[in-house]
Each structure stands twice: as structure tokens, then as C-alpha cells.
Inverse folding.
């Protein structure tokens, strides 16, 4: 049995985050694809509380929740490519923005893309507010982590890759170059990063999935 | 440079209490500033513009928000005394997981026990007891969630206790009858001076909540 196993889902940004981190650290792992409509007994054993992916299993010990897993990976394989900064203030700042993205941004962006017409305006207003906040946080840095990608960049993978695909599937435009030039540029740098691009799901497959699942017709 | 520590807080907030316990465990002297949440101070709005919430820790002029992040910061800066998180990475991950669980599950189900009535309240009570049973299972036979020592998970959970009198009175239930192991753990925590001093009296919290319930038309 491999020392490191990851129970994941091909199209999940949360699962992808863990793969990015493992790749950054050069950790070899066994990937196990889960079918969420038919969860494996192992998954239910390893994550009885939430029954979700991703779950990392290291030396037979399971860890759940992507933010918790990312910190564990950083602390365990700490010789190269730090995900969190060393300085306590910088660490707290990174954790704050990661939590903000997870608890506020992703949901607001998702809602803004998929809401019914009457709710969309309010949802879009909130989503844009959050995008502006991130634009201001990024400032003139190449990545949220500075010169190299860090925790916040990894956690923002939804904005870096998934959002553009959902925008294409739904026709809703949120992260535009005109409104958020720095964040837009970041998203391009992000997907071209070697540690990232090897671990993203195939674009066409994800787009087809988004269109099909939500029954959105293709318009030209 | 002097170590200047200020805490913006609100006396019955379980999230604020976490920070007060952490600072006390580390023996850190700080200035406590009570916020009026209906009339937030310019300082709070400046220090936490994103969420505009308490608690906010200000250390040498720099703000720290979100109680789990604040407590981890305190543990990292004042690292020579009373470690709050375990040193082993796997144990640390478990501790973070359980605090995340508490934050996702306890607060919302508990809030509904005093802000709702009828069926919704019954559902909230059921959910709350499920959460407590899960936590009891995690505690097992250990004295604390951290093992032999009081730690991060314990200090993140114990502040909810000062709201139990309120939940039990509004929801008409008794936690000790259903979850005696949980209450035994509570009593062990309350033996610590840092915890006993940080938790406000449960009846005082109830008086405060009663006023709010009247405003909400629930009394």
C-alpha cells in the first residue's frame, strides 16, 4: 500500500488543491477517484464525519478538509517549496485570505453564475465586491504568495481555473480583464505555473460537465 | 519595541472568549476594549474592514481576525509557554479539523435553539445533540481533547458552555442528562483558572439573550 493516498474527485477544486500541494513538494502518492453517488467503504471509514473528498491518508492515518490537509502537507514535507510563510504575521494573513476565499468568495461566485435571473443581480454585486477585495490584496505581486505560489494561490484555484469555465458555460461574466486587471493577469500566470497546469482537470471535459449537469444550452 | 496587545471583543462572544483564554494561558497582558455591536467603533471597522466582526487582536498595531487564526498566531508568537496546539503534524491536523467541525456545526445549530420556535427549534435541538455525541466520541476516555493537556480544541469549545443555560432554558432540554461525559469534560476545564475567569456567568448571558428574544418577538 502506498505511503500516501489521496481520495479525490477529478473535477473538484478542493481535491485539486491537495494534488497541487503534493506536486509542489515532490511527494509521490496513489490517487483514488471517488464516485460521490456511490462512496467507497474506505472513504466512509476515513472521513466518517463529513463523508467528503478530498481525504489524504498518510501512513494509514486520514486527514480531511482541504485547508487542514494543505497545512499538514506543508509541515510534514517541509524541506522544499513552503506553502505558508515563516513569519507569524504573514502566516495569519495567508490563513485569513484562504478562509475568506473558502467561506465567502467561492460560494458568492458560484451563486452569481447559477442564480435565477431575479437573484443574480444581488449575487453578482456581492461576488464583484469580493473580487475587488482580492484585486486589492494582490496589489502588484505576481502571486498572492509573492514570487512563488503559496497557500492563498492554491486555495484560489477556483478563481484561477474553474470560474472561467463556468463563465463560459453560463454566459455570466465576472472576472474580466477590464474590471480586475491584476487578478485577471494572476489567473493567467496561475494556470501556466508548472505545478498547477499538470494537476488541472481537462478543460473540455470540465466545460462539457458544467454545461450538461446544469442543462445550459450552448449559444453563439 | 513594547509588546502592545489590544483585544476588541464583546463580552458574551464565544469566539472572543477563545482569545481571552489563549492570552491568559500564555500570561500575555493586554488591553480589553468592549465593542457595542450596534454601534461599531471606527477602530474595529478600520482593523477588520472585510468582516467588521469581533474578536480582533491588535498586536503592535497589526490586526488579526477570525478566532482560530488569532489563537494559532498567539500560539506561534508566545511559544515558550503553555503550547496550545500539539507539536506532531498529524495531531495538529486533527486539532484543526475538530475546531473547523465545531465552527461549522455548533454555532448554527445552537443559535437556532434560541432564535426559533416549534419544529425548527426541535430540529435544531436534535442536530445539537448529534454534534455533542460526535464530540463525546472524539473525546473518548481522554481528560481533554488534547489528551492529558488542555489545548486548542478544548479552548475553542469550552466558551460555548456559558451559553448552555440559555440554550437549555429556551430549548427546554438538559445537556447533562443526555451527554454526561461532555459535562464532565466541561467541569475539568472550569477547574482551570484561565477558563473560569474568562467565561461570563451563564445567567448573565441568559438575561442578555432574553432581551434580544423579546425584540425578535420570541417571548
Amino acid at each position: 500500500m502506498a505511503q500516501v493516498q489521496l481520495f479525490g474527485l477529478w473535477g473538484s477544486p478542493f481535491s485539486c488543491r491537495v494534488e497541487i500541494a503534493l506536486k509542489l513538494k515532490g511527494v509521490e502518492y496513489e490517487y483514488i477517484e471517488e464516485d460521490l453517488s456511490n462512496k467507497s467503504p474506505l472513504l466512509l471509514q476515513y472521513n466518517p464525519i463529513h463523508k467528503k473528498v478530498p481525504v489524504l491518508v498518510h501512513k494509514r492515518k486520514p486527514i480531511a478538509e482541504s485547508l487542514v490537509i494543505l497545512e499538514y502537507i506543508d509541515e510534514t514535507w517541509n524541506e522544499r517549496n513552503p506553502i505558508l510563510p515563516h513569519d507569524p504575521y504573514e502566516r495569519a494573513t495567508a490563513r485569513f485570505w484562504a478562509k475568506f476565499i473558502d467561506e465567502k468568495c467561492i460560494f458568492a461566485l458560484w451563486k452569481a453564475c447559477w442564480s435565477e435571473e431575479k437573484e443574480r443581480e444581488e449575487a453578482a454585486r456581492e461576488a464583484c465586491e469580493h473580487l475587488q477585495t482580492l484585486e486589492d490584496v494582490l496589489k502588484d505581486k505576481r502571486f498572492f504568495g509573492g514570487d512563488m505560489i503559496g497557500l492563498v494561490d492554491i486555495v484560489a484555484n477556483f478563481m484561477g481555473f474553474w470560474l472561467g469555465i463556468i463563465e463560459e458555460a453560463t454566459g455570466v461574466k465576472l472576472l474580466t480583464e477590464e474590471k480586475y486587471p491584476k487578478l485577471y493577469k494572476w489567473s493567467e500566470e496561475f494556470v501556466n505555473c508548472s505545478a498547477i497546469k499538470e494537476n488541472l482537470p481537462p478543460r473540455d471535459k470540465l466545460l462539457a460537465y458544467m454545461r450538461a449537469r446544469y442543462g445550459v444550452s450552448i449559444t453563439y | 519595541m513594547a509588546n502592545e496587545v489590544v483585544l476588541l471583543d464583546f463580552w458574551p462572544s464565544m469566539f472572543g472568549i477563545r482569545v481571552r483564554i489563549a492570552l491568559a494561558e500564555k500570561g500575555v497582558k493586554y488591553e480589553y476594549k468592549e465593542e457595542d455591536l450596534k454601534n461599531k467603533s471606527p477602530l474595529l471597522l478600520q482593523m477588520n474592514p472585510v468582516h467588521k466582526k469581533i474578536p480582533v487582536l491588535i498586536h503592535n498595531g497589526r490586526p488579526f481576525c477570525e478566532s482560530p487564526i488569532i489563537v494559532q498566531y498567539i500560539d506561534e508568537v508566545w511559544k515558550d509557554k503553555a503550547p496550545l496546539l500539539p507539536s506532531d503534524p498529524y495531531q495538529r491536523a486533527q486539532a484543526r479539523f475538530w475546531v473547523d467541525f465545531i465552527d461549522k456545526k455548533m454555532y448554527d445549530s445552537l443559535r437556532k435553539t434560541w432564535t426559533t420556535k416549534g419544529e425548527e427549534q426541535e430540529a435544531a435541538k436534535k442536530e445539537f445533540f448529534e454534534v455533542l455525541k460526535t464530540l463525546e466520541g472524539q473525546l473518548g476516555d481522554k481528560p481533554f481533547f488534547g489528551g492529558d493537556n488542555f489545548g486548542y480544541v478544548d479552548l475553542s469549545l469550552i466558551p460555548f458552555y456559558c451559553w448552555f443555560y440559555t440554550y437549555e432554558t429556551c430549548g427546554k432540554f438538559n445537556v447533562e442528562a443526555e451527554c454526561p461525559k461532555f459535562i464532565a469534560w466541561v467541569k475539568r476545564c472550569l477547574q482551570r483558572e484561565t477558563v473560569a475567569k474568562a467565561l461570563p456567568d451563564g445567567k448573565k448571558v441568559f438575561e442578555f439573550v432574553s432581551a434580544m428574544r423579546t425584540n425578535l418577538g420570541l417571548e
In short: Chain B touches chain A through 21 residues (CB under 8 Å).
